């Protein structure tokens, strides 16, 4: 079908959304349910209404725009929340490209036999109470105690965050009740890594989305005087953390290259220059496209931490914050994307996603397909996140063709 997206309009949408939540460091800080996010939600709702789609919001704040039609829905979307000091393309590319595709289908009055929806899922980034709050609530997969116990990474109880919104534990827990029947979910996203740019390909077709195991850990030692405690008598919690971070990274780099391990946030206490740290808390996440490797790494890391603790006279504790399984995308949709790519003359490669996406949650109720476009210098989760607009034009045109193939 010879229909194309309007790149200028899509570019304008992405640039306009990117103005909401700008922070002093030049990035975008728009965690779900923040003031900036609430403003962005209203902006998106107006856009959806202006396209003539019927607007819907569920109890978890997931936002949808729907065309007429009966039967199983073809959905496309992503998220509009960002990481702290993030970039302007992570998530927004998926929501706004999907909106542009539905806008073009309506403008051309194209015949489709199934209802179409654009979706923006709440808190994909896991800033609140574990990853994928919105898409998990959409599926009825959220446990109430996660909400009730939830201390967000800002240190604010989730309950406090909800106070400024129309949402409650009850509305989140009931979000799945009005979920339409979804046949397929499509998500276009920036690759957030260096592969497409290195391979000089404008399109990536995702075959597998990595799973993640995400913990909050502590080494507990003994505070003591920095000037009088001989090194061999110290129970230095920070050294435990440093030892663990280095050895766990070395293990993955040498034995499981291609998988990922990250200490992203640390809190060393009491945090004075002249006191040997008695406590070192830290986030610890590791990722793999293989469930078995995740299980093997979890065992290895817990044993490594205990070994370091006993060698250094420390205690180690950890609690799981989130676990997401790796997921394969739909082979049928991969083939469909490949066919449409060929027809459009876009070079492409098939590759796994190291980043997590709502698609891997929705995969438990529908076939999912993901299209990647290159990230310049492979940078993401950073104000330096950048794309080439002509790559987005290709990706969004491809998404439009795949939606039409699935919907007719
Ligand atoms: O962390 C991730 O993989 C995603 O950006 N939430
Ligand atoms: Mn994302
Ligand atoms: Mn992200």
In the CATH hierarchy, the architecture of the largest domain is 3-Layer(aba) Sandwich
Task: State the fourth-level CATH superfamily of the largest domain.
Answer: Zn peptidases
Content of β-strand: 15-25%
Q: What series of H and E elements makes up the topology?
A: HHEEEHEHHHHEHEEEHEEEEHEEHEHEH
What hetero molecules are in the model? (2S)-amino(hydroxy)ethanoic acid, manganese (II) ion
Largest sheet: 9 strands, mixed
Specify the overall morphology. globular
Distance N terminus to C terminus? 11 Å
Please count the helical segments: 13
Average pLDDT taken over every residue: 96
In terms of quaternary structure, the protein is single chain
The strand count comes to 16
Domain unit count? 2
CATH topology of the largest domain: Aminopeptidase
Kindly provide the radius of gyration, computed on alpha-carbon positions and rounded to a whole number of angstroms.
23 Å
CATH C-level label of the largest domain: Alpha Beta
Q: List the uncertain runs.
A: none
Helix content bin:
25-40%
Note down, in words, how this protein is organized.
By secondary structure, this protein is of the alpha+beta class. Helices cover 37% and strands 22% of the residues. It folds into 2 domains: 7-210 and 326-407, Aminopeptidase (3-Layer(aba) Sandwich); 211-324, Alpha-Beta Plaits. The strands form 3 sheets. Strands 1, 2, 3, 4, 5, 6, 14, 15 and 16 form a 9-stranded mixed β-sheet that branches. Helix 1 (7-18) packs antiparallel against helix 3 (92-107) and helix 11 packs across helix 13 (389-407). It is globular, with a radius of gyration of 23 Å. The mean pLDDT is 96. The protein binds (2S)-amino(hydroxy)ethanoic acid and manganese (II) ion (2 copies). Residues 124-126, 355-356 line the site of (2S)-amino(hydroxy)ethanoic acid.
């Amino acid at each position: 079908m010879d229909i194309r997206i309007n790149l200028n309009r899509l570019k304008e949408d992405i640039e306009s959304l990117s103005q909401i939540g700008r922070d002093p460091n030049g990035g975008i800080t728009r965690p779900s349910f923040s003031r900036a996010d609430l403003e962005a939600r209203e902006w998106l709702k107006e856009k959806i209404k202006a396209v003539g789609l019927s607007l819907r919001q569920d109890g978890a704040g997931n936002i949808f725009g729907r065309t007429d039609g009966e039967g199983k829905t073809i959905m496309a979307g992503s998220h509009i929340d960002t990481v702290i000091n993030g970039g302007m393309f992570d998530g927004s590319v998926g929501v706004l490209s999907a909106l542009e595709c539905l806008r073009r289908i309506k403008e051309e009055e194209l015949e489709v036999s199934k209802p179409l929806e654009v979706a923006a899922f709440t808190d994909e980034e896991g800033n609140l109470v574990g990853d994928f709050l919105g898409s998990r609530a959409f599926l009825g997969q959220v446990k109430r105690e996660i909400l009730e116990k939830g201390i967000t990474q800002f240190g604010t109880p989730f309950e406090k965050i909800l106070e400024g919104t129309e949402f409650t534990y009850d509305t989140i827990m009931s979000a799945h009740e009005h979920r339409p029947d979804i046949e397929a979910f499509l998500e276009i996203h920036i690759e957030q890594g260096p592969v497409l740019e290195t391979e000089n390909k404008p399109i990536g077709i995702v075959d597998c989305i990595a799973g993640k195991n995400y913990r909050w850990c502590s080494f507990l030692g003994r505070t003591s005087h920095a000037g009088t405690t001989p090194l061999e008598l110290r129970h230095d919690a920070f050294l435990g953390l440093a030892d663990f971070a280095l050895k766990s990274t070395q293990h993955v780099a040498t034995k499981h290259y291609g998988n990922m391990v990250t200490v992203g946030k640390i809190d060393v206490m009491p945090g004075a220059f002249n006191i040997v740290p008695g406590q070192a808390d830290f986030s610890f996440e590791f990722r793999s496209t293989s469930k078995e490797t995740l299980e093997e790494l979890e065992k290895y890391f817990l044993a490594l931490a205990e070994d370091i603790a006993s060698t250094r006279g420390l205690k180690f504790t950890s609690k799981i914050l989130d676990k997401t399984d790796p997921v394969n995308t739909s082979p049928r949709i991969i083939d469909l994307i490949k066919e449409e790519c060929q027809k459009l003359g876009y070079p492409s490669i098939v590759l796994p996603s190291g980043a997590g996406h709502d698609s891997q949650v929705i995969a438990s109720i529908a076939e999912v397909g993901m299209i990647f476009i290159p990230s310049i210098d492979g940078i993401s989760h950073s104000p330096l996140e950048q794309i080439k607009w002509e790559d987005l034009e290709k990706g969004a045109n491809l998404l439009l063709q795949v939606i039409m193939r699935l919907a007719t």
